[in-house]
Amino acid sequence: MSIRAPLTIALMAAFAAFALPAAAQTAAKPAADKKPATAKAAGRNPKLARGAQKAVEENTPIDDDPSIQIGEKELAVAREVQTGDMPCELGASVKVTPSKREGLFLVTTKGYRFLMHPVDSRTGAIRLEDAKRGAMWLQLGNKSMLMSQKLGQRLADECQSPRQAAFAEELKRNPRPSILDAPAPAASAPVAAASAAAAAASASAAPASAPAAGMAPASNPAIPAAAAAASAPRAN
User: Fold this and answer.
1) What are 81-124's pLDDT values in tens digits?
2) Which of 120, 133, 169, 197 is the most buried (most CB within 10 A)?
């Protein structure tokens, strides 16, 4: 055997020692690269932050809700709803806009949007509600207010349309009587007349033998006879 044969075998063994780890590393590289790619793909759609969720909600149309039933009674109330931009206290404002569907209204203020519909109110005030988002718009003669029933607080107060502002000024000039004011003494005259009639009836029902007021009592015939007997002279 020549000297070259062992040398050739040694070189082949050394080559195999270096080639096998490199091949294994090359084969394992795609698997290793796959995980970051998956993580990157997953990172494309992370959970939206609160601000982003709010922006998505604000851009989502809410101008109709098929589950809300609007009848003739609700439509009559809807015709009394005042719309437009309304300034409120503390620099806030509320905008009431009729929706595409008759009887529904979009009520918006800073950071909030509600789809509201009329509901029955026993007080006579105009009341709109968004049951899904837990909000209520209450319209009075001189002001309106937006309340969050979910948060338990008012989102805007003392909101006024031009018509409400004019009515509020009229109330300042001519205040309406309060239900707490004392009633006027208008019933005193009828009470006095009834008392007089009762007194007259009592007087007419008195016995005929009773002397009238201011007159002397009738004379007793027994009294003169007794007086004459007393004054007669006595026999000696």
Assistant:
1) 999 999 999 999 999 999 999 999 999 999 999 999 999 888 88
2) 133
Q: Mean pLDDT, to the nearest integer, of 216-233?
A: 50
CA distance 192 to 187: 9
Contacts of 194 (CB under 8 A, 6+ apart): none
Closest by CA position to 115, among listed 135, 130, 127: 130
Rounded Cα gap, residues 40 and 36, in angstroms: 6
Q: How far apart are CA 93 and CA 157, in angstroms?
A: 9
* Residue where the block lists tokens 């009587």: 177
Contact partners, residue 109, CB within 8 Å, separation at least 6: 92, 93, 94, 95, 146, 155, 156
Three-state DSSP at 156 gives strand
Q: What is the pLDDT of residue 55?
A: 64
